[in-house]
Automatic annotation (TrEMBL), chain A:
GO cellular component term, pick one: mitochondrial large ribosomal subunit
Domain of life where this protein originates: Eukaryota
PANTHER family hit by this protein: 54S RIBOSOMAL PROTEIN L44, MITOCHONDRIAL (PTHR28236), LARGE RIBOSOMAL SUBUNIT PROTEIN ML53 (PTHR28236:SF1)
Protein name: Large ribosomal subunit protein mL53
Family, as annotated: Belongs to the mitochondrion-specific ribosomal protein mL53 family.
Compartment(s) where it occurs, according to its Swiss-Prot or TrEMBL record: Mitochondrion
Gene (UniProt): MRPL44
Organism (species): Imshaugia aleurites
Entries under InterPro entries matching the protein: Ribosomal_mL53, Ribosomal_mL53_fung
One function term, GO molecular function aspect: structural constituent of ribosome
A Pfam family per the record: MRP_L53
UniProtKB keywords: Mitochondrion, Ribonucleoprotein, Ribosomal protein
From TrEMBL, chain B:
Lineage: Eukaryota, Fungi, Dikarya, Ascomycota, Pezizomycotina
Official protein name in the record: Uncharacterized protein
Biased composition (Pro residues): 43-58
Biased composition (Polar residues): 156-171
Gene source species: Imshaugia aleurites
PANTHER family tied to this protein: 39S RIBOSOMAL PROTEIN L10, MITOCHONDRIAL
Region called Disordered, residue ranges: 35-64, 143-178
Length: 101, 335
């Protein structure tokens, strides 16, 4: 997964539900130094909580207009999320290349 | 007749008290000693096709997976208290420094309580899938409920060769095998595969911290290091423990996430784990609390039961007093 354009990750999940796996595995996909390059807000809900899990990402402001991405992790699995993020990150990669950075 | 074999004069006194040996010595060339009577009546036991400590298992035992399964089963059976964490790409140095901080915090608790549990409390990364399978086996498979191993055992020297034996061959389907890697264990745990309450947690990179007994004090120390939350689980202050504020520790802790706990077979979430860790005074405190509550209940019950009798007694006494007073008055008037 291309993570270098992500600036903020906000996620909330109840680990005792099945869809939370997507959020947890997404957090595990972030590199070891992710906490220094991006802001990560994680909320772990209680077991009896009925709130749906969600994952929100913000992308680099400098290259593009700071796109915010809301991912419905109740429906998407981790492969879908990675695909979405990579699709946008590749666009940002190309723009950065064209800008000569 | 003189001895046919020459015996050196120095050895002669050894033979003096052993006339039989002396006699054999004389005729040694002629007689082959007979087999001992035990071998005449029974032949050696049948050969088992496997060593006694390596019985056939459901999955090949030489695989790392099988050995991990065995290790996790034994871990789960021996630990009543287990905390489950997710670790997101921790580096080796971060693991090392977190372990160091955890160990020093636990040793401090050990010192206060004069126990020796710190060396037995460990944080280790686990393989989620194998751990799940081991969890099912540890909870749902009880070897004592299954058919005991067929007797006589083939590697037992007292077994006779004529005895019919079940497990002389390497057949993992043999129901007499009841160890934790056996097919019996696998079949006993298989129906519960999708129903364990801890199952949704068991995916992704996981680490467990295991305690050999239920000790809320140690658990509180571990939680205040690994998942601090004021006020009960406040992290150590910078002055008390400067090592805790090292960059490697803090970066590691940001990536470590408490998911849940398993206490004596029951599954708790984060808050439940903190509740268990927050029990004042540990198990002793809990027992004291229970005794106090039960004592209060007892006092209440005796009070309630006594109440009726006491009020009756008070009424009757009052009535008697009234009657006595009346009698006294009447006696005074008559006199």
């Amino acid at each position: 997964m291309i993570t270098k354009h992500i600036t903020e990750v906000t996620t909330r999940f109840n680990p005792f539900t099945k869809p939370s796996k997507t959020c947890r595995v997404f957090l595990a996909h972030l590199p070891a130094n992710a906490r220094t390059t991006m802001k990560i807000n994680t909320t772990v809900l209680n077991r009896d909580s009925q709130e749906p899990s969600f994952l929100a990402l913000k992308f680099n402001v400098l290259v593009e207009d700071g796109k915010e991405m809301q991912l419905d992790t109740e429906k998407l699995n981790i492969n879908d999320v990675v695909e979405e993020v990579d699709r946008h990150s590749r666009v940002l990669n190309r723009q950065a290349d064209l800008a000569g950075n | 007749m003189a001895p046919r074999l020459r015996i050196c004069p120095q050895c002669h006194h050894f033979l003096k008290h052993q006339p039989v040996a002396y006699k054999y010595l004389t005729t040694a060339s002629a007689i082959t000693p007979a087999a001992p009577p035990i071998q005449m009546t029974s032949s050696p036991p049948p050969i088992a096709r496997y060593p006694r400590n390596q019985p056939p298992s459901h999955k090949p035992p030489e695989f790392r997976k099988s050995q991990l399964h065995r290790q996790y089963t034994s871990l789960l059976r021996s630990t009543p208290l287990l905390l489950l964490f997710q670790h997101n790409n921790l580096k080796a140095t971060e693991w090392m420094s977190i372990r160091r901080e955890l160990h020093s915090a636990l040793e401090k608790v050990d010192h206060d309580l004069s126990t020796n549990l710190a060396p037995a409390i460990k944080i280790q990364a686990i393989q989620a899938g194998i751990f799940e399978s081991a969890l099912l086996v540890a909870e749902h498979y009880h070897p004592e409920h299954h058919r005991p191993a067929s007797k006589p055992h083939p590697t037992d020297p007292s077994t006779q060769s004529s005895a019919s034996l079940a497990n002389t061959t390497r057949n993992p389907a043999d129901p007499s095998l009841t160890h934790y890697l056996s097919r019996t264990a696998h079949d006993a745990a298989a129906p519960f595969k999708k129903h364990h309450p801890l199952r949704p947690l068991l995916s992704g990179p996981l680490a467990t911290i295991t305690f050999p007994t239920v000790t809320p004090q140690h658990m509180r120390a571990a939680l205040s290091i690994l998942a601090p939350k004021a006020p009960t689980f406040a992290a150590p202050t910078r002055r008390a423990n400067p090592g805790y504020y090292d960059a490697s520790v803090q970066h590691g802790l940001q990536k470590l996430m408490l998911l849940g706990a398993r206490v004596e077979g029951r599954v708790f979430d984060r808050e439940g784990a903190r509740w268990v860790g927050g029990i004042e005074g540990g198990m002793e405190g809990l027992r004291g609390l229970l005794v106090r509550v039960l004592g209060e209940v007892g006092a209440g019950v005796t009070g309630a039961l006594e109440g009726m009798g006491r009020s009756l007694w008070v009424t009757v006494e009052g009535r008697r007093g009234m009657l006595e007073e009346e009698e006294k008055k009447r006696g005074g008037e008559e006199s």
